[in-house]
Design goal:
Layout lengths: L3 H17 L12 E2 L25 E2 L21 E2 L8 E5 L7 H15 L4 E5 L4 E4 L21 E10 L5 E12 L7 H34 L5 E4 L5 E5 L3 H13 L3 E7 L4 E6 L6 H5 L12 E9 L5 E6 L8 H18 L4
Antiparallel strand pairs: 1-2, 3-4, 4-8, 5-6, 6-7, 7-8, 9-10, 10-14, 11-12, 12-13, 13-14
Length: 353
């Protein structure tokens, strides 16, 4: 009895596969498609009257088997803070407003353009930034599909762009436009839609780099201002972590002292692996502690051993990833609770990392 189940499953799979081969794919045969002929009236009957105004001819349609790319025009992505685009504009252009901390908006935009060119390992063929123009060397925006490791990587096409920067008289708003000035490809011919997609893609790369550079600038400004920071974020592995502005070496030096003042016991500091092993025991506060204002902060986490992994994020901030005694990463809910408790302790007791 127990053998009929796998046999039935095997038979079902075989029948299903064989059934797929029964039906031919008539939708892709190399023949013309023709609508049904009009109804033929027998010779012994009178042909009904048909108004010529509504008479429709029998049409034929050619079956074109070539794959067509029906893609909408590319859109300028206003991802960076202070960036915006005009509606229904037929050129690849982005506008930037001067955000806090940026001294010279035009120089900040040009640095973003240079960084994009460097990421493609390309060069600058014509540097006319004094006239608001910069022309790139050849590089490829269209990435070839990855094949097997023994296959040679194939370049689909390569392009050259001219970036045009215009700034308002008040110098608090600037626009950047990308123009395709060179295109080479043996396989993909250039048309208006492809040109628009390439130009907008070139602009979007600059917008993403502008956003990244400005986030780095914000980090530096907050460091200089000494803003208290212990935010919730993610480490390089995507795990929930505490994020601080202090650099990694500074955190390793000061973390143990900070944790001891919020009722952690530091067991071991491993400089090689950038890990700190600690033990937490919730304090037993008395009535007198609350009266004299010496009540120790209590964190809403279980008592026990924890390992803190100190790392660096993409934007050069420092991440603190917490593991429990079984080396399981604390989930986002637990990290949020921990972050709220630590921030409250930092503010109430005037502590810092």
């Amino acid at each position: 009895m127990q053998y009929w189940v796998p046999k039935a499953l095997t038979l079902g799979v075989v029948l299903g596969l064989s059934g797929c081969s029964v039906f031919t794919n008539d939708a892709h045969q190399k023949k013309n498609y023709r609508v049904h002929e009009a109804v033929q009236v027998p010779a012994d009957l009178e042909q009904p009257y048909q108004d010529q105004e509504f008479k429709m001819r029998v049409a034929t349609y050619d079956n074109d088997q070539e794959a067509k790319s029906y893609r909408p025009p590319q859109q300028v992505l206003t991802l960076a803070k202070g960036s915006w685009a005009e509606d229904k504009e037929d050129v690849a252009r982005i506008y930037f407003d001067k955000n806090d901390g940026i001294e010279h908006l035009d120089e900040f935009i040009w640095r973003s353009v240079e960084s994009v060119i460097s990421s493609h390992e390309a060069s600058i063929s014509d540097d006319s930034r004094s006239q608001g123009k910069l022309t790139t060397g050849w590089y490829s925006l269209i990435k070839a599909e990855e094949g097997w490791f023994w296959e040679t990587e194939k370049e689909v096409s390569r392009q050259r762009f001219e970036f045009v920067l215009s700034q308002k008289e008040h110098q608090r708003t600037a626009s950047l436009q990308a123009k395709l000035v060179g295109y080479e490809s043996d396989e993909v011919p250039l048309n208006d839609l492809l040109q628009q997609q390439l130009e907008v893609r070139a602009i979007n790369e600059v917008v993403a780099e502008f956003d990244y550079q400005y986030r780095l600038l914000q980090v530096e400004l907050r460091k200089q201002q000494g803003v208290l920071s212990l935010d919730l974020g993610f480490d390089l592995d995507g795990n929930a972590a505490l994020i601080t502005l202090a650099d990694r070496s500074t955190v390793m030096e000061r973390l143990s002292n900070f944790l001891e003042r919020v009722n952690f016991t530091v067991i071991r500091i491993d400089e090689d692996s950038s890990e700190v092993l600690v033990r937490y025991e919730a304090p037993e506060n008395s009535v007198w502690d609350s009266i004299w204002g010496e009540e120790a902060p209590t964190l809403a986490i279980p008592d026990g051993d924890y390992t803190i992994k100190v790392g660096t994020t993409d934007d050069e901030q420092t991440s603190l990833t917490w593991f429990d005694a079984e080396r399981n990463v604390l989930d986002a809910t637990m990290m949020k609770t921990l972050q709220q408790g630590l921030v409250e302790a930092l503010r109430n007791r005037g502590l810092s990392i």
